[in-house]
Amino acid sequence: MSGISRDAAQQLHDAGLEWRPEPGDRFVVRSDSDDDDVFTVSDMVVERHDHPTGTILGFNGTTEWALDSVALEDALWLPREDQLRELLGGAFRSLARSTTGLYQVLVEVPGRPEQVFDGDHAAEAYAQALLSLVKAATA
To answer: Band of the pLDDT at 136, cuts 50, 70, 90?
Structure first.
């Protein structure tokens, strides 16, 4: 099972999707290098620390990284398939696989026609559907 792409995660972030880190959440550190290291928030490895000045993600006992923490704004959330589906809420109608092998997410918003969003992986189809809803809600 493949997750959401970094590009789709960036589009969701840019559209206004907010992240409050919880155990099990996956993220990458934003940097000039397109490093593909994916981290998981965990009470044992990467913990969320809330401070009056902002949230940081603290790395506990990480010997291979010269990194103690990273500010939330320097991290990019990679929502899982189940999180994306939950964020779609009542607009989500179905997930299916097309005859061409693409995953298709059907969403319905009252007063608008049903929409279908495609992706090579289910998470990507969910992300495209959510991106459409977030953009419509903030327009």
So the answer is: confident
Extract the tokens encoding 72: 């939330």
Is residue 92 within 8 Å of 85, Cβ to Cβ? Answer: yes
Would you list the DSSP string of 84-124?
Answer: HHHHHGGGEEEEEE-TTS-EEEEE--TTS--EEEEESSHHH
Would you give the distance in Å from CA 45 to the centre of its chain? 20
- Token readout for 34 is 């397109």
Domain spans in the chain, listed from the N-terminal domain onward: 6-138
Backbone angles phi, psi at 70, to 5 degrees: -140, 135
Give the predicted TM-score (pTM) of the model: 0.80
Classify the C-alpha dihedral 13-14-15-16 as positive or negative.
Answer: positive
